[in-house]
Specification:
Layout: E1 2-6, H1 10-19, E2 25-30, E3 35-37, E4 44-47, H2 49-55, E5 58-61, H3 68-76, H4 84-91, H5 93-103, E6 110-113, H6 116-126, E7 130-134, E8 144-147, H7 153-166, E9 172-176, E10 182-190, E11 196-198, E12 202-207, E13 210-216, H8 220-236, E14 241-250, E15 253-260, H9 270-273, H10 278-286, E16 299-306, H11 314-317, E17 321-325, E18 335-343, H12 348-359, H13 366-378
Parallel strand pairs: 1-2, 1-5
Antiparallel strand pairs: 2-3, 3-4, 6-9, 7-8, 7-9, 10-11, 10-12, 10-14, 12-13, 13-16, 14-15, 16-18, 17-18
Helix pairs in contact: 1-10, 4-5, 5-8, 12-13
Bound molecules: adenosine-5'-triphosphate (ATP) and magnesium ion.
Residues 246, 257-258 line the site of magnesium ion.
Length: 379
């Protein structure tokens, strides 16, 4: 089987690593340069979308901000999974919100803004405080504003108007501010036959809008809610592949924040913590193979390595620690790799995370240090 991935970043790379034992070969299509590249070495293998499509048995995507003309060409080939509609829902908050409403899953109240008058209507409809998000192109908390008081309106409108003017189809989605106690996400797979396999929920910590620490958790009540919403969204889309749902946990009730129609950063823990990792299950789904078990095999956390191209070698010696580098050039804040850390007996994961806080730089890994500090203060 030959799978073409739209996008040539770390997710295509990890799909390639997971596909090899199943004889699934991955090539990556870099949408910007229009080249076909090897997902591990970035060696150029060819040029042009038509050429890439002709060589592939299946086409999938590792990101959602894909020009719609490219999606249309891929869909026309009959090889594209999950679907152009699913990718568009992940890339445009207007479509995403309509999808969530259609699927009947709880999400934050919202209003779409295109003009200054709309902004007033949004304040009336949604209320203050509110979170304002660009409909297109947002990721890692970029393209967002927080409106807390009415005297901020003109300054925020000036910035939003500039954002709207930049792209023809741009708009702003105003959302009620959700007073959540924590953020969790669900990664799961749906097969061609409609079978669904979901992983345990992950609890996510963000630092400056970027995921920094993600831990698989066991919570029967929350998991049940999340599973139902996952199935509702996946069935509405007739989805095939791995899909992620991000939630706000408001005192035990989940609201969907957003969806990602692809393998997800909060599912990287599955490489060491689950029977079958999310990358393998995505490939199994899109290739029409049976899904693998999503069972938790050991407690696991994932720590993102942001803007750093090295960590102390001692991490490699530490119990339960596994480093995954993405082979990328160092840039401030860039996702460079992650560390999966596991525990085999009760309390071991916590112990290993605290041991990591002793060797990882506090500025680069604030979430790990905060975790260790909270453990200390509980003792
Ligand atoms: P990514 O794609 O990296 O997950 P993003 O840029 O698409 O992020 P969101 O996930 O929508 O953006 O928002 C980023 C963060 O901002 C959320 O993880 C959450 O912490 C906060 N946030 C977003 N929407 C709201 C809301 N309505 N109320 C309160 N906080 C919010
Ligand atoms: Mg998000």
């Amino acid at each position: 089987m030959h799978v073409l991935v739209l996008g040539a970043g770390q997710l295509a790379r990890m799909m390639s690593l997971a596909g090899a034992p199943l004889n699934i070969e991955i090539s990556a299509y870099d949408v910007g340069s229009e080249t076909i590249v090897h997902p591990l070495t970035q060696t150029v293998l060819g040029k042009g979308l038509e050429n890439a499509i002709a060589k592939a048995d299946v086409i999938t995507a590792e990101f959602e901000h894909i020009p719609h003309d490219i999606l249309a060409i891929c869909e026309q080939s009959g090889k594209f999974l999950p679907s152009a509609q699913a990718i568009k829902a992940g890339g445009d908050r207007r479509i995403e919100k309509t999808l969530l409403d259609d699927a009947g899953v709880r999400n934050a109240k919202y209003y779409v803004i295109q003009t200054r008058e709309d902004f007033d209507l949004a304040i009336e409809h949604v209320g203050i405080p509110m979170v304002l998000k660009s409909a297109l192109g947002g990721y890692d908390g970029k393209g967002q504003w927080r409106l807390k008081q009415l005297d901020q309106v003109e300054a925020i409108w000036a910035e939003m108007a500039a954002c709207i003017a930049e792209t023809e189809t741009q708009a702003i989605v105003a959302e009620e501010f959700v007073p959540f106690s924590r953020e969790v996400s669900l990664v799961g797979a749906r097969g061609k036959d409609g079978s669904v396999a979901v992983y345990p929920l992950a609890e996510n910590v963000h630092t400056d809008g970027v995921l920094s620490l993600s831990t698989a958790i066991s919570d029967i009540e929350l998991q049940q809610q999340a599973n139902e919403m996952f199935t509702a969204v996946a069935e509405t889309l007739d989805y095939v592949g791995v899909l992620a749902l991000e939630f706000f946990d408001v005192d035990g009730a989940l609201l969907v924040n957003e969806i990602a129609p692809r393998v997800h950063n909060s599912g990287h823990w599955t490489q060491q913590g689950a029977e079958t990792c999310q990358f393998e299950n995505h490939l199994r789904a899109v290739c029409g193979l049976p899904l693998g078990s999503t069972k938790l095999i050991r407690e696991t956390s994932m720590i993102n390595i942001l803007g750093e191209d090295s960590v102390p070698n001692s991490v490699l010696e530490m119990a339960g620690c596994h480093i995954h580098w993405y082979g990328k050039e160092k840039r401030p804040g860039r996702k460079m790799g992650h560390i999966n850390v596991c525990g085999d007996y009760s309390g071991e994961l916590q112990r290993n995370l605290c041991a990591l806080a002793d060797v990882l730089d506090e500025q680069a890994f604030p979430a790990v240090h905060q975790f260790a500090a909270s453990v200390l203060s509980d003792q």
